[in-house]
Amino acid sequence: MKQRKAIPVFTYLIILAVIFTLVSGLISNLNQGPAYSDVVHLFEKEQVKSFTVSGDTIILNLHNPYKGETEVSAKMADADAFRREMWDLIQSQQAAGILESYDFAVEKAFSVYDLILPLLIVGLVLMILWFMLAGRANQANSMNNFGKARTVLGVPDGAKVTFDDVAGADEEKQELAEVVDFLRDPKKYTQIGARIPHGILLVGPPGTGKTLLARAVAGEADVQFLSLSGSDFMELYVGVGASRVRDLFAQAKKIAPAIIFIDEIDAVGRKRGTGMGGGHDEREQTLNQLLVEMDGFGRTEGVIVLAATNRADILDPALLRPGRFDRQIYVGRPDVKGRTEILKVHAKNKRLDEQVNLKTVARATPGFTGADLSNLLNEAAIMAARDNRQALSMADINEAMMKITAGPAKRSHVRQRQDLKTTAIHEAGHAVAMYFLPTASPVQHVTIVPRGQSLGSTWSLPKDDSANMTRNEMYEQIVGLLGGRVAEALYVGDISVGASNDIERATKLARDMVARYGMCERLGTVSYLDGGEVFIGRDYQTTKSYSEKVAATIDDEVKVLIDKAYDHCKQLLADNSDAFQKVVDYLLENESMTGKQFAACMAGQTIEDGSDTMLLDDLAEQTEE
Ligand code: ADP
Ligand code: MG
Ligand code: ZN
Predict the structure, then answer these.
(1) CATH number, residue 49
(2) Which of 77, 66, 76, 59 minimizes the C-alpha distance to 42?
(3) What CATH code is carried by the domain that includes residue 502?
(4) Same domain, yes or no, for 373 and 272?
(5) Catalytic-role residue among 341, 379, 427, 557
(6) Which DSSP string do the residues of 370-435 spell out, in sequence order?
(7) Pocket-testing residue among 374, 376, 378, ligand 1, by greatest number of atoms within 8 A of Cβ
(8) CA 58 to ligand 1 centroid distance, Å
(9) How many whole angstroms separate alpha carbon 179 and alpha carbon 185?
(10) CA 173 to ligand 2 center in whole angstroms
């Protein structure tokens, strides 16, 4: 298909080039010699000795050279008009002996272009017609292949991936290993009457390695692997998706045992009948066909469907019922151990400094997915290469991490002293407030170097990986978030928009506590906010499931909670104004401070000069134990 397309484009280019040369030839031809008005002028100045007109060309023989030539030729638009206009002049000049002879030739001068041009035009038209017809035929040809599934057979991208390349996801690999084993030796399972699931759905946030796992299954099982992305079913023409599904399963049955892998299945498997954007007939037909096919093949056929999505919540329930995708494997964000292993996998082909401690990096990156970690090391490697260093260091990883999470540092940014002071006070407010909150994560880094959209930042890292949060932890988080604004109010005397993101986050947290997690006495243990974000195409028309009265109470309680946190924070900062002032001074002097320096400052000790303030440095010491 692709090759056929390339030929016409090339030919059109040639045709264009031919036309171009012709036209430019004609134009340069016209440009030779004087213009018509100059010819008239030459006559008037009695310069013409003799002339010949043939066709639209006039050749003049001159008494004196015109632009260095005594014989010049010019094109004329209308030879008859020339004859009429100039007749009297010609007669009189001949009588006076200035013009010796002249000739109005009847025959037209022969020009190559006169002959070739019409031929070329005819040829061109014929060629264009021919290409159009050929194009039609091509299209008709490809129409026949239209309903065929465009599958990738074997391992996509060529590179063979095995379970060893997938780090950390031990439980997930365990479950998939079963599938691999079944495909290798189905008898072992069928003999005792065990039933291997038809379809397995890999669910999890983007970048956690779902596609990678599927490819690893293909690499491990020595079976055929048909892979296809959900959007491949979709086409402009109705019915194509359904016939592609049919074809996909027909292919798989032919080459069984086989694995069908449908990546990003939410593109086809979205809930039917949500009415968003008008009923999407094509998608519904495709989904229906998929449901039929998944029912249709028997268990002995040795075809297993693997699918991946990060939006299991919008999938049609019919897809998830037993017999179809009856097993879901949740591929979550990796924990510290998983992250360490993933980092090791990705560090394999990179040159690392001896000091680099991947365990420390893993500790500092809670919430990072496999893709994030791979990206982190890559960014660090790019930085090392950019500075012509042989190996990437902890400092590179540190900078890469901050760059990824907050944007590159803007050191060239010129800022006013007052601006810096406000930022220092703001950040010190966060840091000092957090220092005095028992459940808050230890501060690891405070800086007034702007990054991305923020003017400064305070970094803290949780002591452990725990995902659960208590009411007190959430409340103290709000207090810490308000630290910046409270400090501004206390020590600048005015407040700035620098705190807008903090306030947003604090408000959201407070709202969740009150209305989602049932953490407020007045409203009781009732969840008024459901699910999470509103997804397009799902529950779009969700109406508030609570009364106006409750809504007012929620708003009230949120405000009460925030006010309480604000006063708490104000108390903390006012009580510790000396320590606070020291942090501000240090920041104005040095721009950044490490967690260790900050802790020393708060404890009233002398602050050691760590010339390079690094987030990961402090952590490294903690990991040593
Ligand atoms: P998704 O879950 O969005 O399909 P991918 O499987 O495409 O994510 O993962 C993206 C990249 O992240 C992979 O190519 C790989 O480099 C990296 N990655 C993700 N998870 C892991 C893991 N567990 N081990 C090693 N690399 C991983
Ligand atoms: Mg993927
Ligand atoms: Zn802030």
Answers:
(1) 3.40.1690.20
(2) 66
(3) 1.20.58.760
(4) no
(5) 427
(6) HHHHHHHHHHHHHHHHHTT-SSB-HHHHHHHHHHHHH--B-TT----HHHHHHHHHHHHHHHHHHH
(7) 374
(8) 79
(9) 10
(10) 16
Identify whether 9 is part of a domain. Answer: no
- Any ligand 1 atom below 6 A from CB of 307: no
| End-of-domain residue from the set 80, 109, 138 | 109
Q: How far is CA 49 from CA 34, 45, 46, 72, 99, in A?
A: 16, 11, 8, 12, 5
Please check whether residue 259 lies inside any domain of the structure: yes
The CATH number linked to 295 is: 3.40.50.300
How far is residue 532's CA from residue 550's CA, in Å, rounded to a whole number?
19
Residues 6+ apart with CB under 8 A from 488: 422, 425, 426, 429, 494, 495, 496, 498, 499
Dist. CA 270–CA 241, nearest whole Å: 14
In the three-class reduction of DSSP (H, G, I as helix; E, B as strand; rest coil), residue 534 is classed as coil
Query: Which of 267, 297, 330 is a domain's end point?
Result: 330
**First CA to last CA across the chain, in angstroms?**
62
The CATH number for 376's domain is: 1.10.8.60
555-608 pLDDT, tens digit each:
999 999 999 999 999 999 999 999 999 999 999 888 888 888 899 889 888 877
The structure tokens 């690891």 sit at: 444
- The residue written with tokens 């957090």 in the block is 434
3-state secondary structure of 446: strand
Of residues 350 and 98, more confidence is placed in: 350
Q: Are residues 516 and 602 in the same domain?
A: yes
Provide the residue range defining the domain that includes 370: 336-405
DSSP state of 495: -
Token pair listed for 546: 């609570």
Statement to judge: residues 171 and 272 lie in one domain: yes
* pLDDT band at residue 540 under the 50/70/90 scheme: very low
Q: Could you tell me if 363 and 312 lie in one domain?
A: no
* 230 contacts 263 by C-beta, under 8 angstroms: yes
Tens-digit pLDDT profile for residues 64-93? 888 888 888 888 777 778 888 888 888 888
323 and 340 together in one domain: no
**Is residue 231 domain-shared with residue 353, that is, in the same domain?**
no
> Does ligand 1 lie within 6 Å of residue 208's CB atom?
yes
Report the pLDDT averaged over residues 306-314: 85
| Whether residues 311 and 356 fall in one domain | no
- 569 lies in the same domain as 446: yes
Question: For the residues of 226-286, what is the DSSP string, one character each?
Answer: EEEEGGGG--SSTTHHHHHHHHHHHHHHHT-SEEEEEESTHHHHBPTT--TTS--HHHHHH
What domain count does the chain have?
4
Cα-to-centroid distance, 369 and ligand 1 (Å): 8
The overall average pLDDT reported for the chain is 80
Residue 438 lies in a domain: yes
